[in-house]
From TrEMBL:
Origin species: Halobacillus yeomjeoni
Name this protein carries in UniProt: Spore coat protein
Disordered: region residues: 114-133
Database matches in InterPro entries: Spore_coat_protein_Z/Y
UniProt entry keywords in alphabetical sequence: Capsid protein, Virion
Pfam families: Spore-coat_CotZ
Length: 166
């Protein structure tokens, strides 16, 4: 049974994320999921557009723990960041999604680590919250850091209110 109205892949998480991608790409549809309000806000049901471009999400692993993705920008391997908040960029027919890590301009947690390697010394600046509660979710911004995930690895998705992240 599908949790999304438009898609029926057999996976609740995949169906909802496909609905979000469609909404983010301004494709109108009737969604009857728990993310209905966020999608409606994104689409600006009151007319004239909402100014929002993203439904931020949190994914949960099959063991119930929140999923945290890590990444770094090209050429900045010393600045590893972790986030519990994502923008869905795309979902393919095989159940893989490209997610962009979202960060606030004012993170709650910032750790600095120093490590040296044989070729050079690098000062690692890591943003590594231990739970979604440790990561500021106000004023989330797109990071340009994207990861690919297998949506069959997740059992739950939580939508945050629609936001302007770009």
């Amino acid at each position: 049974m599908s949790c999304g109205k438009k898609f029926d892949t057999g996976s609740c998480v995949i169906d909802i994320l496909k609905d979000i991608v469609d909404a983010q790409n301004d494709v109108l549809h009737d969604c009857l999921t728990s993310c209905e309000q966020s999608i409606a806000d994104l689409l600006g049901d009151t007319g004239g557009g909402s100014g929002f471009d993203t439904v931020p999400i949190i994914l949960y692993n099959k063991d119930g723990s929140p999923f945290k993705g890590y990444g770094t920008k090209r050429g900045d391997h010393c600045n590893v960041k972790g986030s519990f908040y994502f923008r869905v960029k795309s979902v393919d027919d095989e159940g893989c999604a490209i997610l962009e890590l979202l960060f606030s301009n004012r993170p709650h947690v910032l750790e600095e680590e120093e490590e040296s390697s044989s070729s050079s010394e690098c000062h690692h600046h890591r943003f590594d919250p231990k739970s979604p509660a440790q990561q500021n979710c106000r004023n989330l911004r797109a990071s340009g850091i994207c990861i690919t995930v297998d949506l069959d690895c997740f059992c739950h998705v939580t939508c945050l209110p629609a936001a302007a992240t770009l």
